[in-house]
Each structure stands twice: as C-alpha cells, then as structure tokens.
Amino acid sequence: MKVLFVAGDPKPERWTVPIKELLPEAEVHVWDANGPAVDADYAIVWQPPEQLFEREKKLKAVFNLGAGIDGLLAVPNLPPQLPIVRLEDAGMSAQMAEYVLHQLLEASRGMETYREQQRQGIWKIHRPIKRSEWPVGVMGLGHIGKRVARTLAGLDYRVNGWARSKHDLEGVSTFSGTENLPDFLQSTRVLVNTLPLTDETRDILNQQHLSQLMPNAVVINVGRGEHLVEEDLIKAIEDGHVARASLDVFRQEPLPADHPFWQRPEITITPHISARTLRDATLEQITGKIQAHHNGQPISGIVDPSRGY
Ligand code: NDP
C-alpha cells in the first residue's frame, strides 16, 4: 500500500513518521511538486494542488485533513468518482464547544463589563442573567453542531438546532429545512454557525436572515467566512439589531489589515483557531480508515458529492 502526504507543512515528517508507525506495511511518500508519480493508493491532503490529480492516477480514496471539504472540492480536476473522506470530530467538537461557550459567556455574563470595571477599580455586581433571555440557535447539527448544542443545553440554555434533515436531540428544539428556517431564527438570539460551505449555505448569514433574529442578537461564526455577507453584518450592527459578533473565519484569511472588522468594538476576531486539527487524533482516525479500506471494510465519513458535505 502506498500513501502520499500532500499538505504544505514545512516539516512533513511530523506527519509521515507517525503515519509509518501506524501503518507499518505502507510505503509513505511526501508530495514533491517536481517529482514523478508514485502511484499512490491513498492521499492524505490539505488544499492539494491540481497536479496531484494529473499525476496520481491510481488513487483509491483521498483523506482530507479537516472536517470542511470546500477547499478540496474547489480543485477543478478532482476526479468525480474518487471517494473523499472528511475528518469526523477527531477532537474538534470539544474545542468548538469550548470556543462557542466562551463567546456566549462574554455576552450573556457581561464579562466585558466586569473587565472594564476592573480597569476603573469598580466593584459592582450586576443582576444575574435570565437564561430565557439568551436562546441559542445552532446551525448545523453534525459532529460539531451537535456537540455545541448539547454542551449549551447541558448548562440550561434554551437551545434550538437547525439542519437539513430532522434530528432528535435531548434538550434541543430542532428545526429542519429552509421552510423552518424562519421559525428557527425568530426564536434565536445567539446564532452559532457550524454549517459546511456548500452552494446552499454560501451567504446564509445575510441581511434577510440576520434581521429575523431576536433583538440584541449575537452572531458566532465558526463555519466558513463565505457563509457571512460581511457588509450585511456591519449594517445589522450599525442598525443596533446585532449587538456583537464573534468571528473565527473570514472570506479572506488572513483578514486584511485594512478590513473594517478590525475597528469594530462589537466584533471579536480570532484567526481560525476555534477547532484546530489535532495531529495524533487525526492520524489515528485516518490511518485506521486507510487500513479498513485497504482490507475491504466499510468506512464512515465519505463525502456525498451531491450534497457537497
Ligand atoms: P457534518 O457534515 O458532520 O455536519 C454538517 C451539518 O450541517 C449537518 O447537520 C447537516 O444537516 C447540516 N447542513 C448541511 N447543509 C445544510 C443545509 N443546506 N441546510 C441546513 N443544514 C445543513 O460537519 P461537521 O459538523 O463535522 O463540520 C461542519 C463545518 O464546520 C465544516 O464543514 C467546516 O466548515 C466547519 N469547521 C470549522 C472549523 C474552524 O476551525 N473554524 C474546524 C472544523 C470545522 P444534516 O444533519 O441534515 O445532514
């Protein structure tokens, strides 16, 4: 079995040494833009170059080093029949639940107010929050959204969840399909986006949808930058309908130095760190699936190209 590692890590041995340990019979190669074909059976990739699919004609599956496969699907010559396997959780959902909880608490528990009071040496206690005033709506109930929704529901927040298909989640009011999106939005104050980027979800955080949220809304985007219509968010903040936003992903990354988001006190910016790829958990999952596929066993996490995720 031949495995090809194709990701722009300047130290690829951080990946290939453990891959070799986990798959002792495999011949493990690192992508060389100027090298010959290695006739790999499996590629482990992050945003691979087009030449990969021109050169490697014997691939049986491609394993993506992330949950979102929008970058891989954008490669124009990706063979349509080639199975794509995305990362399933692999330690990301816990990180995401922490991130979203942190951003929610900043708003709901007024942490910024207490930080400002500390700067001024003020000891002042504000009234306890009413959880009923902070209903959260999680868009996407997959590996990540489900964990986020369950975590917040476990802390007695009112949680709504929205997905394409119907879900049954304890403690979460679930909505499905575009026809139920208005009901979901209208009962949500804190909107958390964990959707994959597809033709259907691109630009979904737009004026029409943001305006349906409850007043003093909060937007937390950990999906993809292309989900958010940036000027619509700024307009909603200026109108006072959206009180604050926490953004981890952007249309252009790194966020350009002159981007208006940097100057907005209502916006918290993080550089795409809400859920990092954890090398050990990731490689354990991917190599386990490569071995299973090699042995002719079924594997989970194969992307459905017709859905785009
Ligand atoms: P999953 O595929 O497990 O879940 C996707 C969820 O989105 C499903 O519940 C699915 O519905 C729902 N969905 C997809 N399309 C639609 C639609 N048109 N309308 C309504 N719901 C829809 O993905 P993960 O949870 O593993 O990951 C989600 C995304 O999170 C990734 O694609 C990536 O973009 C982002 N991400 C961001 C990271 C970061 O660091 N910021 C890190 C990791 C992931 P259904 O259940 O009905 O199929």
Short description:
Helices cover 30% and strands 17% of the residues. The protein is α/β, with parallel strands linked by helices. The protein folds into two domains: 106 residues, 3-Layer(aba) Sandwich (Rossmann fold); 178 residues, NAD(P)-binding Rossmann-like Domain (Rossmann fold).
Note the main attributes of this structure.
309 residues, alpha/beta, Rossmann fold, 5-stranded parallel beta sheet, 12 strands, binds NADPH dihydro-nicotinamide-adenine-dinucleotide phosphate, oxidoreductase activity, NAD(P)-bd_dom_sf
What does this structure look like?
This protein has 309 residues and is of the alpha/beta class. The chain folds into two domains: 2-89 and 277-294, Rossmann fold; 92-269, 3-Layer(aba) Sandwich (Rossmann fold). 30% of the residues lie in helices and 17% in strands. It has ten helices and twelve strands. It has helices at residues 13-22, 51-55, 70-73, 92-108, 111-119, 143-154, 181-186, 207-210, 230-238, 279-294, and strands at 2-6, 27-30, 42-45, 61-64, 84-85, 136-139, 159-163, 172-176, 190-193, 217-221, 242-247, 267-269. The strands form two sheets. It has a seven-stranded parallel sheet with strand order 8-7-6-9-10-11-12. α9 (230-238) links the parallel β10 (217-221) and β11 (242-247). α4 (92-108) crosses α6 (143-154). The longest helix has 17 residues, at 92-108. The mean pLDDT is 97. It binds NADPH dihydro-nicotinamide-adenine-dinucleotide phosphate.
